[in-house]
What we know:
single chain, five-stranded mixed sheet, 9 strands, two-stranded antiparallel sheet
Amino acid sequence: MEMENCVFNGSSRRESIDHREDFPNIRSLIVRHFKGIWTKDTLFRRLPVLQWAPRYGIKSFLSDFIAGITVGLTSIPQSIAYATVANLEPQYGLYSNFMGSFVYAFLGSVKEITVAPTAVMALMVQQPVHDLGPAGAILSSFLSGCIMLLLGCLNFGFVVQFISMPVITGFITAAAITIISSQLKSLMGISSSGKSSEFVDTWINLYENIGETRLWDSILGFTSLFILILLTLIKGRGKGRWKTFTKYLCLLRNATIVLGGGLIAFVCSTQQNYPFKLTGKVASGLPSFQLPPFQTDFEDKQYDFIDMIRTLGTSVISIPLISILEIVSIGKAFSRGKLIDATQEMLSLGCCNVAGSFVSSIPTTASFARSAINSSSGVVTPFGGVFTGALVLLALGLLTDYFYYIPKTTLAAVIIAAMMFIIEYRAVAEMWRTKRIDIVPFLVTVVACLFLGLEVGMVVGIAVNLCFPLYLASRPRINHRLMNVNDTTVLIVRPDSDLAFSSAEYFREKILKLVTRTLPHIILIDGEWVKFVDSTVVRNLSSTISDLRQQGRHVLLWRWDKNVRNALYRFKKHKFMPLFRNDECAEEAIINWKQGFVNESYISSV
Length: 606
């Protein structure tokens, strides 16, 4: 008897040890993480230039040179145009266009991506520029870069997974509509004192000033827009030499339109005729290399660093988040099946923005249109960005005097044409065809971004979209069936997913309703697919078993995972341990349990 007690006590002690929850060894995790930092593998992953530089040859150089120059010719007029979207002087668009290209050439992992100012980034810094002047945009670039570097160092690349395709599509659609709306007055030559480019304010402003429409600006603007749309649609169609000609004409359509508009304006100016509103003087020379502005004076008011942070508000978070989303989604679009390291893209883009803030850059990210041009131009490595940046520097040093004659209406046409094709019409059609419920977060995001602003709209869209998986998690599918085993009615209940606090009450109510309807003798809960439960589920399951026992019914737990069993043992071992069954089939579990139940009843009676 003593030996039996010793064996029992020993096994109980072992079981109690087995039932303890395993906590991760924080020290070993930290040591393993920091050991992984100083490996050759990590070095090659964090400095992608080391992967392609040893194989770099003259053929790759020529391909990158052609692609880089082609992208640069497109990027220069777009950058000037995006500076106007941000309510900044034109040179700030060019200041933002070279440092990111240089940095990403050595740290970027996707050869097609070009880092530069985009319409969305320009739109998102409008308010900082309105509140703090150029210093607001430059500090936004620095802070955005710091946040992206921090997220990258913490391996927070998974954060972007919480923003779904419908929300991203809705955000891009709303941003494109807002930008198109803001450029209509420039397209028609309307002079307006209204600086806000919010969707509603823009249309109110346009309605109030529609009488100031200038004929020649409108003619040049709509003609330029028509040509740009046409060149975008034909995309180098044709045969032989004509196909080659149309291909490069389509690739350089922005530069062609801006050059053509500027030439017309210059010819008119020689006749002392100025039918168009011109860009005006663009500051020449390279920007000075200096620290980002941590204090500033704007509109007779002084701001220290804390005041500037307070004024920037939520844009400090929203700008880096949108930047990361853009570069990761564009990287995936050009990955051709390869995995994209979101953490590396965060780190590289963070470095681009921090470095750019030292040369008066606004926040930058990947540009889909320019990345597409880079790809179609035959880029081989990210080094093509060096030639793009060099061309921008050349333009800043030698060509700024000629930018004076660029009509504002042609810049507006360039922006509107780009935005018309950035809207993902196909994605909306795919959502409708594949899963129509996804239209809800898409529409909510679009409407919220248009009427509440991009930052608030993005948060609203994410919140609404997260309600769907939360609802599904709180309503797991619960299958059930009745069977008869030796004149005993058995209800088998099987949840098809893990059980968390959000589904605890639903699971309990579902079982009680099924029992009330079917009146079984035994309830067999099949936990084959349940790999996780929390304390709320454990407590609810315990109370459910107690309620069913009061009704004179028996509960068995069949095929439950070891970790789940241990969680239940830690709560009430004496209550749950007799309930678990691991038999091959349900009938066998019931028969064996009934046999054991009869034996226990006999022993108790003796």
